[in-house]
């Protein structure tokens, strides 16, 4: 349709926008980077062809922002999240109060702010994320099909701030909102998996802070449901497995049941295997797998486990760019693995490496 539409035709921009949406849908289904590149290209053309004051200008800016967000989530390029925030903010500013798309534009802007916070750690970004996501929830009627997603996204922002500042009110809000999102979503809905996963993460966050065993039991229960509901090939399968592994490890560290650390390693290994090279979460999942191997080494003393811990933690460090907010923590984790092997074998090279990476951290 685009190829047959002459330049200057009043429908050219709309057809380019629709083509961009199709490319982006195919990217989410198949993961081919060429599709998201094409989506950004044609959505940008659609925006450029849409004059200021046109009633569809905001929607096309919002769609372009979503495409930049998708590429950022895949490749981690800061330029993409900067562009996502820029065009999503323009979309919000151009959408009048009372417009049915206002809430969606606010929600997408909030997601972009949170993504930049997760990468750079600037508290202003998570404050902005909560602010605009709360506005999106408030503007979305209870019976609106997007209500659950808005609640889930706001809960995610509260959880991110809890991880940074430790305010119990934030994790309480996260659990409440994630539970509401889950309760509003019918069985069989494709987002049910994600809501369960996020609810489980919130329960674990409160367990890590307060130590209530009921929270880690609930975390394992709902994360297991998320894994069971995500078919092979589901884009969130790896994340669900990684998070389930974290919950098993959390219970192992509290109760010492070997079955939990075995399950943690199994789930985290599957998560790593399902995460393609170049994915922005690859390093975090490798780091988590290394932590699980070291946990089993500390309990059983099998040298193979500490070798694997060093291997995966080193890969996680190598994949984390300078300036990444988790770089120091991953270096610290690698240092602890070198220290663990030194304590067992007494090789001076290990303690030298431990000192080196801990100094870098």
From TrEMBL:
InterPro entries: TPR-like_helical_dom_sf (IPR011990). Signal peptide: none annotated. This is TPR-like protein.
